[in-house]
UniProtKB/TrEMBL annotation:
PANTHER family in the cross-refs: METHYLTRANSFERASE, UBIQUINONE BIOSYNTHESIS O-METHYLTRANSFERASE, MITOCHONDRIAL
Lineage: Bacteria, Bacillati, Actinomycetota, Actinomycetes, Micromonosporales
The entry's keywords: Methyltransferase, S-adenosyl-L-methionine, Transferase
Species in which this protein is naturally found: Plantactinospora siamensis
Pfam families, per the entry: Methyltransf_11
Signal peptide segment: none
GO biological processes: methylation
Highest taxon of the lineage: Bacteria
Protein name from the UniProt record: Methyltransferase domain-containing protein
GO molecular function, one term: methyltransferase activity
Residue ranges occupied by any Methyltransferase type domain in the UniProt entry: 43-140
Keyword Transferase attached: yes
Gene3D superfamilies with a match to the protein in the record: Vaccinia Virus protein VP39
Amino acid sequence: MERTHPRPGPPAARPGTGARTAVIWAVLRRELDRQGDRALAVLDVGGGTGGFAVPLAEAGHRVTVVDASPDALAALTRRAAEAGVADRVRAVQGDGDALGGLVEPASVDLVLCHAVLEVVDDPAPVAAALATALRPGGAASVLVAGRAAAVLARATGGQLAAAAAILSDPEGRAGPRDTLRRRYDPDGATALLHSAGLLVEEVHGVRALTDLLPSAVADGDQRAVLELELAVAALPPYRDIAAQLHLFARRTP
Ligand SMILES: C[S@@+](CC[C@H](N)C(=O)[O-])C[C@H]1O[C@@H](n2cnc3c(N)ncnc32)[C@H](O)[C@@H]1O
């Protein structure tokens, strides 16, 4: 792998960074720092319009985004060009569970799969494909929808039947018209990645507090909100009732 001196890094978890993604960036920042000044091969599966891909490319890394949506990829390409990193961002239309034909096995240092496993037909082959793409020792950043937060949100919004369904359904689904195919508890998400050959090192809650705050509070002292969000992210029970669960895992050597 070539060595370069990346430009100043992507958003760290610092005041001024959006509280909704601060926890994820804090975990990623640590992994990027751990790799020193190496330009990493990053794969973002279901990376959409590049909310993570473009900042990572701006930090000097080479990012391939595989996404099923041509519209999302077109927006990604525009965004990368506007940021001046088009040469470090590759947009590939394709399915997450068919990565084998799109990405060389064991070629990736860091794989992202954010807000995807809850919408695909079958998460197991996608998780397996993430592991296959990673080099031994490579890291995975996986973000999934949390079940407990959805139960609480439906119940406090008066949708008691939907809350009960999400609680009791094996997939954590409110019903056939639910926009998500499944939701996760920390143990279930960890087991999914483990079955794929990924060792989960950390689990954090994302948006544990931000989605619960009245907007006057969320828009008020943003520094305080961000610091509180970071403080609770790793701590059960706050972690477990977060809107999303972030798992940081590594392919076993
Ligand atoms: C909720 S968006 C998340 C986008 C981005 N990862 C983020 O966190 O902002 C889900 C993305 O996954 C993509 N997607 C859904 N199913 C997919 C599949 N089977 N293979 C690849 N991409 C998929 C969608 O096109 C969409 O861009």
